[in-house]
Amino acid sequence: MVPMVPIFPSSTPAGYVEPNATSCQQWEQPHHLFFHLGNLSLLLGLVLPTTLGLHMILLRLFLMTGCSLFITWATLYRCNLDVLVWNVIFLLVNFMHFFFLLYKRRPIKIDRELQLVYKRLFKPLHVKEALFQRLTGQFCTIQTLKKGQAYAVEDKTSVDERLSILLKGKMKVSYRGHFLHNIYSNSFIDSPEFRSTEMHRGEKFQVTIMAEENCKFLCWSRERLTYFLESDTFLNEVFRYLVGKDITNKLYSLNDPKLSDKAVKKMDRQPSLCSQLSMMQMRNSMASTSDTDDILNQILRGGSTGKCNDNIEGDS
Fold first, then answer.
1. Could you tell me which of 104, 316, 17, 283 has the C-alpha nearest to residue 176?
2. Kindly report the CA angle at 169 between 168 and 175, in degrees rounded to 5?
3. Contact assessment for residue 252 and residue 174, using Cβ atoms and an 8 Å cutoff
4. Would you state the pLDDT for residue 306?
5. What sections of the sequence does the record tag as coiled-coil (predicted)?
6. Which of 21, 84, 85, 180 lies 20 to 30 angstroms, CA to CA, from 73?
7. What is the pLDDT of residue 211?
8. In the chain, what is the straight-line distance between the N-terminal and C-terminal CA atoms, in Å?
9. Quick one: how far is CA 174 from the chain centroid?
10. How many CA atoms lie less than 13 Å away from 106 in the CB half-sphere?
């Protein structure tokens, strides 16, 4: 047998490596400085500690810088179209993320009438401006009352409609003509009713709340506010704290009706279950008995607080 010999000799010389082969016969010279600066920029962005407040913004900034350097290197020194196109795409994506992060950190302008309420009540509890704006911008209105007008009338006004914070002015709370306490600015107007009727709807105010001065107040729709708080656990806990604290302050006002506005603002006690129950028991007791004067005298002497303390000692 005679071996077959190809008629045409192979045109591939020995030792030739195809362009797409993976073996490297000879290493190229190092790339231009722009290439190394681009990789250095990517490295700096990836090693940034996540504890930095501007971590994501700085990361996107370094990635954009690296892509820009790669584009310069591919255009001026490499003349490689695919490297250029991919880095342009990466640059655009990172720029959109960078712009969105800056937009999220933009300063939030709170309405001038609400700035004091935010600084006094919500800012100390670490409520962000954006969250406060959501809370007051969707289902909240600012309303006014002239001197002598009633916010609520006992046995007539429903407690299910709203929850309000007094922004400006002063209100007087009374029961059957007997003065109970005042409500000053940056305080909830109907916090006891809001807390005591969370489980029982359809009740009426047991007191009359009257404007002693021209008043302006922030008013939420109770139904929509409750629905919104159910979707935000943090804000729900903030409201529970603020309402409880306001009830505590009103209880101290009941025990000392001559308490001044400055003294009320200085009270910074956490709400206790005892104080909240005392306020609710006071309202219920007033509505269920005809001996109004004795109850009012007991409240003014601090009887509700003493009774609560006695109950605590008895339980312990």
1. 283
2. 125
3. no
4. 46
5. none
6. 21
7. 93
8. 114
9. 35
10. 8
DSSP string of 41-97, one letter each residue: HHHHHHTS-TTSTTHHHHHHHHHHHHHHHHHHHIIIII--HHHHHHHHHHHHHHHHH
- Please give the radius of gyration of the chain, using alpha carbons only, rounded to the nearest integer: 36
Query: 124-130 — which CB contacts under 8 Å span 24+ positions?
Result: 125/238, 125/241, 125/242, 127/235, 127/238
Partnered with residue 174 across adjacent β-strands are 179, 208
Cβ neighbours for 167, distance < 8 A, ≥ 6 positions apart: 113, 114, 116, 117, 142, 185, 186, 215, 216, 217, 218
Residue 70 has what pLDDT?
92
Segments of the chain with pLDDT less than 50:
1-2, 5, 7-8, 14, 264-293, 295-297, 299-316
Tokens of 209: 């709340």
**How many residues in total does the chain contain?**
316
Rounded Cα distance between 40 and 30, Å, is 15
Indicate the pairing of strand 171-175 with strand 178-183. antiparallel
DSSP three-state, residue 311: helix
Residue 145's identity, in one-letter code, is: L
Residue 313 is predicted with a pLDDT of 46
